[in-house]
């Protein structure tokens, strides 16, 4: 699809059109397409920690409260040099709460992709993050995500409660069937009861403990 989100002379770029100047789009809502990334992270660090750390042999993730990384959307050029120091980035995980207006959920999918496309244009390796809410977002969350590539998902807070688990399991099945990923990076738990069949199908599952899991484990052992 041709470029439609262009900057306009004399107008302040309030919706960050510069991020998608050379983007291609997919779907009715014109979600920017993220290029596939073949690298596989061996270590993750949250955006809020990455700002002040020097452990650059890691990939930056955004599986934390939106308030912790909204500043990246508001001031992207301020944080670009920091992100460039790291191995790569997992695309921002803007929230898709089921009680949010659907248009806001679509907007957050768009924003995640816009940031990812822009970072890739700046030479930063980016792995697409796939976040869904209920059935209304199963299709939109896959738009613009490369097929047959590595994707990342967050399971923290999505499996423990029975109601949440159902949405997660059904969404994951839709995502896998639609995108046919070669590898799935999972931030949080990845129980065999949910992920076992995908491992058996030959999909590489790479699980990383959430910061909450690490902190809880440390507290229990002390």
Description:
It is a single chain. It is globular and about 55 Å long. It has 222 residues and is of the alpha/beta class. It is 34% helix and 14% strand. The strands form two sheets. It has a seven-stranded parallel sheet. It has one domain. Helix 5 (162-179) links the parallel strand 7 and strand 8 (183-187).
- Count the DSSP helices: 7
Low-confidence stretches: 215-222
Main sheet makeup: 7 strands, parallel
Looking across the biggest beta sheet, what order are the strands in?
Answer: 3-4-5-6-7-8-9
Look at the structure and give the mean pLDDT: 90
Number of strands: 9
Distance between the termini: 56 Å
Our count of domains comes out at: 1
Q: State the share of residues found in helices, binned by percent.
A: 25-40%
Order of helices and strands: EEEHEHHEHEEHEHEH
Query: Which radius of gyration do the C-alpha atoms yield?
Result: 17 Å
Strand content: 5-15%
Structural class by SSE content: alpha/beta
* Backbone shape: globular
């Amino acid at each position: 699809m041709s470029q439609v989100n262009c900057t306009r002379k004399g107008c302040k770029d309030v919706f960050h059109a510069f991020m998608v100047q050379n983007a291609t789009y997919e779907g009715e809502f014109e979600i920017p397409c993220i290029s596939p990334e073949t690298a596989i992270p061996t270590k993750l660090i949250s955006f809020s920690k990455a700002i002040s750390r020097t452990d650059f042999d890691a990939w930056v993730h955004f599986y934390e409260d939106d308030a912790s990384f909204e500043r990246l959307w508001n001031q992207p050029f301020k944080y670009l040099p920091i992100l460039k120091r790291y191995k790569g980035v997992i695309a921002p995980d803007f929230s898709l709460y089921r009680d949010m207006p659907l248009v806001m959920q679509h907007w957050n999918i768009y924003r995640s992709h816009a940031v990812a496309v822009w970072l890739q244009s700046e030479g930063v390796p980016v792995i697409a993050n796939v976040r869904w809410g209920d059935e209304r977002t199963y299709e939109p969350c896959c738009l613009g995500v490369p097929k047959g590539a590595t994707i990342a998902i967050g399971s923290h807070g999505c499996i423990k409660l029975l109601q949440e688990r159902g949405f997660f399991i059904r969404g994951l099945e839709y995502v896998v069937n639609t995108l046919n990923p070669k590898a799935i990076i999972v931030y949080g738990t990845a129980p065999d009861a949910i992920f076992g069949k995908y491992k058996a199908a030959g999909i590489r599952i790479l699980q990383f403990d959430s910061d909450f899991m690490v902190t809880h484990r440390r507290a229990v052992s002390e």
